[in-house]
């Protein structure tokens, strides 16, 4: 960075040093001016008084007496006027210096906010580049796939090709537990009357560990969701996005009830921030499924303008739109016979 940005990003200590140097110089100049003022004032007043006194002592008969007295009194008057004007100007300069100091102080107070805004811009630029690369990688991975390729295979190829850059686009931290889960509306595997949201593809931060854990309890490998169940079911129920920055609050968590039979140990620690985006296709804009992105880090997703967390929501939206496009291109229309819940 350069120019104004460099100035804004200087540490507070450097700004303070520059401020002290500037006002120190101003004070030094003011002191020097004060010395000159005193010298000129003394010269005028003392010299004028001396001339006036000499003129008075010379007497009326001396032709130069009146001239000397007049000049002397004039010098005294000039000295008085000079002092008055100088003091007025000095007061004005002092007021201007105080105003400048106030502005500088306000700037220092706002420095952290300015730095945060600039840091956000830099982070957003970096993450947007990752997102563009991820989109390009996903397109290249599927563009040569035959038209009859199953949608599940297409989505898996997309995530395999773009997952690393999607991580960069989101800004996941080392050790963070995150997941992108792709859900599709399917018949209830338990034989229920109504459809459920079934996870068909998933991308974890540590897929090997997840597979090992799921292998211990095969019945818990995937959880399907009915309407009003969990984040995905609530998204389906309202046919709208679900964005939660922090689910640790009981009031917030209670909005996404999970039946006891579908609860897992550690859910509360694993699912702290979530973004669920519907995948809609067809002329009726029907909900084919959704992308459910989760993290154990609070504030990973949030509705906030010009904020990296809002950008993270946009990343999930982009993924949902890419999947919707592939569903529309390869399936044509949703093949399910939707039933009302």
As for the CATH topology of the largest domain, it is Beta-Lactamase
Report helical residue fraction.
55-70%
Largest sheet: 5 strands, antiparallel
Number of domains: 2
Number of helices: 9
Shape: elongated
Overall pLDDT metric: 75
User: Looking at this structure, what is the CATH superfamily of the largest domain?
Assistant: GAF domain
Radius of gyration, taken over Cα atoms and rounded to an integer in Å: 38 Å
Q: Which keywords apply here?
A:
five-stranded antiparallel β-sheet, single chain, disordered C terminus, disordered N terminus, 341 residues, alpha+beta
Quick take:
Helix content is 59%, strand content 12%. The chain has 341 residues and is of the alpha+beta class.
Please give the structural blueprint:
Elements: H1 4-9, H2 12-58, H3 65-142, H4 151-170, E1 178-186, E2 196-204, H5 207-216, H6 230-238, E3 242-244, H7 250-253, H8 267-270, E4 273-281, E5 286-295, H9 308-331
Transmembrane segments: 40-61, 67-88
Protein name: GAF domain-containing protein
Keywords: Membrane, Transmembrane, Transmembrane helix
What would your notes on this structure say?
With 341 residues, the chain is an alpha+beta fold. The protein has two domains: 8-119; 145-331, Beta-Lactamase (2-Layer Sandwich), CATH 3.30.450.40. It is built from nine helices and five strands, in the order ααααββααβααββα. The chain has helices at 4-9, 12-58, 65-142, 151-170, 207-216, 230-238, 250-253, 267-270, 308-331; strands at 178-186, 196-204, 242-244, 273-281, 286-295. It has a five-stranded antiparallel beta sheet with strand order 2-1-5-4-3, with helices on both faces. A hairpin with a 4-residue loop joins strand 4 and strand 5 (286-295). Helix 3 (65-142) runs parallel beside helix 9. This is GAF domain-containing protein.
């Amino acid at each position: 960075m350069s120019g104004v940005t460099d100035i804004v990003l200087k540490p507070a200590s450097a700004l303070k040093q520059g401020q002290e140097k500037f006002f120190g110089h101003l004070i030094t100049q003011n002191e020097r001016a004060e010395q000159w003022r005193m010298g000129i004032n003394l010269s005028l007043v003392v010299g004028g008084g001396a001339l006036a006194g000499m003129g008075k002592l010379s007497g009326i008969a001396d032709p130069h007496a009146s001239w000397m007295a007049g000049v002397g009194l004039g010098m005294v008057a000039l000295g008085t006027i000079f002092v008055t004007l100088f003091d007025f100007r000095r007061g004005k300069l002092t007021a201007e210096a105080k105003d400048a100091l106030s502005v500088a102080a306000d700037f220092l107070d706002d420095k952290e906010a300015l730095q945060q805004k600039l840091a956000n811009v830099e982070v957003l630029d970096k993450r947007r580049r990752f997102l563009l690369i991820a989109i390009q990688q996903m397109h290249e991975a599927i563009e040569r796939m035959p038209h009859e390729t199953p949608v599940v295979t297409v989505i898996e190829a997309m995530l395999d090709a773009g997952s690393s850059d999607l991580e960069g686009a989101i800004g996941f931290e080392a050790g963070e537990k995150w997941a992108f889960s792709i859900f599709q509306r399917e018949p209830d595997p338990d034989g229920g009357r109504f459809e459920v949201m079934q996870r068909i593809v998933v991308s974890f931060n540590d897929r090997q560990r997840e597979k090992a854990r799921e292998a211990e309890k095969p019945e818990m490998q995937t959880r399907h969701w009915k309407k009003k169940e969990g984040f995905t079911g609530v998204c389906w129920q309202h046919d709208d996005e679900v964005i939660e920055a922090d689910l640790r609050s009981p009031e917030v968590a209670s909005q996404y009830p999970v039946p006891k039979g579908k609860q897992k140990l550690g859910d509360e620690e694993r699912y702290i921030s979530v973004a669920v985006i519907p995948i809609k296709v067809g002329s009726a804009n029907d909900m084919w499924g959704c992308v459910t992105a989760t993290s154990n880090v609070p504030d990973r997703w949030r509705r906030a303008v010009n904020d990296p967390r809002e950008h993270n929501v946009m990343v999930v939206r982009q993924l949902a739109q890419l999947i919707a496009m592939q569903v529309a291109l390869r399936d044509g229309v949703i093949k399910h016979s939707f039933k009302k819940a």
